[in-house]
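Section 3.1 - Work completed
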Amino acid sequence: MYAVVPTLNAAADWARFAPILSDCISPRLVLILDSSSHDGTPELARTAGFAIRNIPRAEFNHGGTRQFGIELLSDADVVVFLTQDAILADATAINMLIRAFDDPTVGAAYGRQLPRPGAEPIEAHARLFNYGQQSVVRSIADRERLGFKSIFISNSFAAYRRTALLAVGGFPKHVIFGEDTVVAGKLLLSGWKIAYTAEAEVYHSHSYTMTQEFRRYFDIGVLHAREGWLRREFGSAGGEGMRFVRSELSYLWGHCKWLIPDALSRTCLKWIGYRLGRIENKLNIRWKRMFSLHASFWHEDQR
């Protein structure tokens, strides 16, 4: 087992992130893929005993960079992926996650993401909605019941059986983001299962501005437009989106009613962003860069 962490200027998170990671896994089994940080991240990684590979920032891609890590670790059986702001809850988190692979039919597993300390209510609800208290193993049979939710997974804290990942082509090397969703869909269609391990926990959430929410959902729309097979095979994400909105309004009604107008405004912006992303092929590159949370992708897209 190895752990792979893409980083970019991770120094601000390092004191919380690195020590608990070293408690979970031997530092020599951690690979940092650093996108030319200028804040001392490479030096911090070396001091911690982690292996490090530097990549030009302009060459970073959510799928391509992670696939680079997979290709480097040719002797791995299971590879765990984390992001630099996902703080492991305790020293058992990674071991709890990889227990899922005791089942030989499991190709991927992901853990529970808890709201970070001090998270705002809207931010906290998103984590509580998407990451429940009960573990579950999903197969292609769950597609009829869960639809698009059946391929939910997050590489902020996930692990993959390397042979299964490579058997479905690995991570896509040119994708705006959502490389984890693409792989999850391919794994289920190929007969593998995906485990959600609620006992494996990290603290990880984001306080997005309204503009960031719009841009994030624009990118989701781009993913769904370019990977149209996901919707054909697993259905629209609209039903799950409506369930989220109802849950969010109920949560806010019980906790902080004054945030409901803010939440409704965000919902409208998400919908507009998503619809624009779905028609990105009709937009010029200037607008795509303006709308996207991953503007650098569009420079890569033109190469």
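Second construct:
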Amino acid sequence: MSTPSIDRRGFLKGALGIAAAGSLAACAPGGPSAQPSKLAAPASSASSVKGEITVWNRSGDLFKVFDAAIGKFREAYPNVKVRHQAVDIDAKLANTLISGTDVPDGSFWDDAKIGGQAEHLYDLTDLIAPYRDRTSPYKLSVNTVDGKIYGVPWDLDPGLLWYREDVLESAGVDPAGLATYDDLLAAARTVKEKDPKTRPIHLEKTPFLSQLWLEMLANQQGTSLTDAHGRLRLDSAEYRRIFGWIDSAVKDGLVTHAPYLEPADVNTLDSGQQVFVPWAIWWSFAPQQLLKATKGKWRAAPLPAWTPGGARSGAMGGSSFVIPAKAKNPELAWLLYEFLCFKEPGYTAVYGPNAVYPGGLSTSIPSFTPALDPAKPLFKPIEALGGQDLWKVAVEAAGTIPAAAPIPWWWAQSVDYLGNNVQRLIEGRMSPEQVITESAEKIQRNLIDRS
């Protein structure tokens, strides 16, 4: 499969929502200051629906994918004109919602940002209702504030364990036996004994990404930084389990501490120093675009479980679509997003082979479960993974992702405390208990109590 070049900065921005727009939020999840408007779908048939909408998306390859998929929507709704605009959403959308001036009819947005702007968005609960039972519980939960749904769930980003098949085979490690994180530590020790230059497990050096990764591991255990009422739950057995595991990996010399896909990371991946990368599905970008010496040698498996029989995946990042409360034609925007997320051929047009990605879009999967048939892949096996059927692995892992709580509006700001302290833990400058105690105290005092 040939894969086009990807704008990596744009891709990361879209996948993660790195900009900390939380400071613009008017309220925290659980307490909108104004009663949101409910949206009802147009009653007319597709052929009689008329009008014009403006929708925002990020620039780059993903914009091109959606632009082509919107062409399919135009075929289904021939009298709806869609003005699809590439916008710096992180810089512009929150301010636009607050000012109420020149708002789009709909926009792509990071799940982490939606809760903090709920009062400026349409309540989509009734429109989502027919699809609730067929949508990932995780995606529903992160789009829900006070029991109301404010985003149209789009992608699902399951965590996977990426590993070097050839290195494990040489070391006598069976990847099928990596059932728990303790098994992963044992395998890493075996690999290191075979080749002392290896530091097999990737741990992230960027505070934001390390905190996003931490939340994937917490989600695996059915928890998150806050509960549905915004109460902090960092001081828990689940987080202690994660921090204890990190501490053990560091003390045993099993860790490569490198920034995600920067040169130091790529070089150690290609040199054979890194062997295991527990990360989201979008790491598939690395073997397809960046790795040269080890392209074709990497494979994906479900994440290990934290306890025997536990969930084998958690979500890491994600985006949805929102409809501003002051949109001019919100009903038509809903029809577009309903088509792209819940209708065939909409989601196939997004994820299936297209002019931008001839093999299909393989950096996430749909959150709509009827689209997730392991036997009917939307994207093709990936040559850079040795022809592995990543679709099947990702779909099966995604089926184990637990539901979560709404993401608090201050989440990105908490990286100054928790994300930075995770780095100190990896560097051996803090203990697991210190990370929990100090991070919880500062987040509570500086973010939660001041909101």
